[in-house]
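Translate structure to sequence.
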């Protein structure tokens, strides 16, 4: 390699000859041949704008998408005088690969960070608009397909697939209040964790009428203004505030308790213990974790006799139910 680099310095005609061969091969649509010439040049330190652009075009023609994307990112990161040109090439590459989100993010960043010539600015904005429209069409088609798969998952009684489809709906960011979703919230056969995912979905909606939910044979009506509080962190904060001593003395155990509490809240929401019972739930969490670590002392045994046994059972149920969906 060093010898080749020295040859380039000693014999500049070799460089000119390779560049000419690459240019001719491109003009004749022999992109594989042209790529080899460009690759020899770049490997030997020739990285002019013309050479890098030619190499990128060959990569795109040869369907070397991943390699071309990596090279574009390297070139854009340099922020040199050809930054705008490389952004335009990269946006085109991403657009051709139907990566519309990436196109929009790239263009948004480029337009805010640098002054772009008017003709390229116009081209980038047009590509952004097209990407936005195509992404919207793609998402609508995906939404229809996801909703269909959700209905199939309900018929099959496939809890995990239902949860996954709800999460996909959230990612699509298309929000629709339908009788299907409402009936799922009231259906006792729908998994509690799936219903919580649906509540997350409903938080994104502008509700015109309340929703009804059933979990663990308990029923509730949730008004639109109450939805923001359904998955509130106030419950988590309230219970963990009763565990300050554990947090100071044993941070690892405290973290375990916090994870279990978060899963507990996700399973049981909106039917969570009242504030006056937070200390009791905190004690139950302590007992549950000590038990799982096989670290039960006499004090724990004495405490367990005065605890409401159903809180420990509720924690156990929440761990089981959460695990059936998310394998934890």
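Result:
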């Amino acid at each position: 390699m060093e010898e080749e680099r020295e040859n380039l310095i000693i014999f500049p005609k070799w460089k000119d000859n390779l560049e000419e061969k690459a240019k001719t091969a491109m003009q004749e649509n022999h992109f594989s041949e042209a790529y080899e010439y460009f690759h020899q040049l770049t490997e030997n330190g020739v990285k002019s704008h013309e050479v890098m652009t030619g190499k990128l075009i060959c990569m795109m023609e040869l369907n070397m998408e991943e390699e071309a994307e990596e090279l574009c990112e390297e070139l854009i990161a340099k922020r040199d005088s050809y930054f705008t040109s490389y952004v335009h090439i990269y946006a085109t590459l991403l657009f051709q690969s139907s990566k519309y989100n990436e196109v929009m993010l790239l263009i948004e960043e480029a337009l805010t960070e640098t002054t772009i010539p008017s003709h390229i600015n116009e081209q980038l904005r047009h590509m952004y608009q097209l990407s936005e429209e195509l992404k919207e069409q793609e998402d609508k088609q995906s939404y229809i397909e996801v909703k269909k798969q959700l209905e199939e998952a309900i018929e099959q009684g496939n809890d995990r697939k239902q949860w996954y489809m709800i999460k996909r709906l959230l990612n699509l960011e298309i929000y629709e209040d339908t009788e299907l979703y409402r009936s799922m919230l009231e259906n006792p056969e729908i998994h509690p964790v799936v219903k919580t995912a649906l509540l997350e979905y409903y938080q994104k909606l502008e509700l015109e009428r309340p929703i009804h939910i059933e979990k663990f044979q308990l029923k509730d009506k949730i008004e639109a203004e109450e939805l923001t509080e359904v998955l509130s962190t106030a419950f988590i904060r309230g219970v963990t505030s009763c565990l300050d001593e554990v947090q100071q003395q044993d941070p690892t155990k405290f973290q375990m308790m916090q994870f279990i509490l978060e899963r507990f809240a996700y399973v049981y929401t909106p039917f969570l213990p009242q504030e006056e019972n937070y200390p009791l739930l905190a004690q139950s969490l302590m007992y549950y974790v000590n038990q799982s670590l096989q670290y039960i002392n006499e004090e724990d045994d004495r405490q367990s006799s005065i605890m409401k046994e159903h809180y420990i059972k509720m924690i156990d149920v929440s761990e089981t139910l959460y695990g059936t969906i998310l394998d934890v």
